[in-house]
Amino acid sequence: MTFLWLKAFHIIAVITWFAALFYLPRLFVYHTLSEDQVSRERFKIMERKLLRQIANPSMIAVFVLGGWMSYLNWGYYSQATWYWCKLALVTVVAIYHHACVAYFKQLRDDKCAKSHTFFRIFNELPVFLLVGIVILVVVRPF
After folding, report:
1. Percent of the chain having pLDDT more than 90?
2. Global confidence as pTM
3. Calpha distance 35→52 (Å, rounded)
4. Which one of 17, 28, 63, 109 is CB 3.0 to 4.6 Å from 119, fit for a cystine?
5. d(CA 125, CA 140)
6. Mean pLDDT for the stretch of residues 67-91
7. CA 5 to CA 77: how far, in whole Å?
């Protein structure tokens, strides 16, 4: 029963983390397109709150709950190839998250040289990661 509760809260954390990772780069697009200081300051506040109040806590919850579930079923997970592939993709998601933090800091300090076009493309990357992770968890092709 504990495992099912952990899984439920893990899924909730994954959903909130990806929601933040889908929205944050979209804010970067609008931020880079903004032409007045008031708009730029508004985006800085929105980006900061999204990172600190949703993205970062969700990422931590994903790793804590996922680690706890892995610990409880280590005999099964340690032998599952799909599990290790999924962990590799989750690592890429964490790297993407940290790239978002780096871009947030550049935008906050008015030192970002990336264009709105770059952020439009950058915004699409977590979609592919999410698709791969869900397929690995549900279909377990390996």
Report:
1. 96
2. 0.95
3. 25
4. 28
5. 22
6. 95
7. 18
Instruction: Say whether 53 sits in a helix, a strand or coil.
Output: helix
Residue 73 CB neighbour total at 10 angstroms = 12
CA-based nearest residue to 17, from 48, 76, 61, 49: 61
Range of the domain at 48: 2-138
Residue 45 has pLDDT above 80, yes or no: yes
pLDDT score, position 5: 97
Q: Does the pLDDT of residue 1 top 90, yes or no?
A: no
Non-local (6+) Cβ contacts of 106 within 8 A are: 112, 113, 114
Q: How many domains does the chain have?
A: 1
The Cα–Cα gap between 83 and 42 comes to 41
Q: Which residues of 39-69 are buried (b: 16+ CB within 10 A; e: fewer)?
A: ebeebbeebeebbeebbeebbebbeebbeeb
Radius of gyration of the CA atoms of the chain, in A: 17
